[in-house]
Amino acid sequence: MDVLTDNFSLYGKGFLGTVELTVYASLLAMVLGFVMASFRVAPVGSLRVFGTVWVTILRNTPLTLLFFAVLLGLPRFGLVLPFNVFAVLALGCYTSAFICEVLRSGINTVPTGQGEAARSLGMTFAQTLGTIVLPQAFRSVIPPIGSTLIALAKNSAIAGAFSVTELLGTYKTLNELGYSIIWTFVWIAVGYLIITLTISALFHVMEKRWGVAR
Description:
Elements: H1 2-5, H2 8-40, H3 45-59, H4 63-73, H5 83-109, H6 112-120, H7 125-155, H8 170-176, H9 181-210
C-alpha cells in the first residue's frame, strides 16, 4: 500500500495521461472509422479502394511499428509536434481501422430495401447513409465498439516507451526508487481496470438505451 500512498501524485499523473490518450485517440478513431466505413460502402470506386487500403495496412501493421513510424518518422519530414500528439495519431489511426470494420459489419446488417427506399425518395448517398443506414447500424455495433475502445485504452501502454506520460510508464521511476515491482504493477493494473470498467459501463448504458432489443 505504501507504494501508492507515497507516490499518489506520480500514479495520478500517469493515470490522467492514460485517460487523455484514451479519450483523444478514441475520438479520432471514431471520426476516422466513420469516414473510412463510409468510403468502404461508397458508390465511388476510388473511395472504396482508399478505404480498403487504409484498413488493410493499419490492421496488419504492428502497433509498436506504427508508433515508430509516427513518432520517429514524421519529424524527419518537418512535422514536429509534442510526443503525446503523435501518440494520439498513432493510436487513433490504428484503432480507426477496427472501428471501420465494426461499422461496416453493422451497415451490412441493415436490409438493402432500406437504402433502396431512400434512394427512390430522391435521397443522396450521403443522406441515405447518415439518416437511414448508420443510425440503424450503430444500434447493433455498440458492444463491439466498446470492446475496441477498451483495447485502445490498454494499447496506450505502448506510448510510455516513447517518452509519453501514461500509467504503465510509472513503473520505471518506482523501480528506480526501490519499491516492490509486484505492488507497483498491482496498482498500475488497478488503474487500467478503473479505465476499462468505466468504458464498459458507459457502453452498457448506451446499449440498454439505444441497442437492439434482444
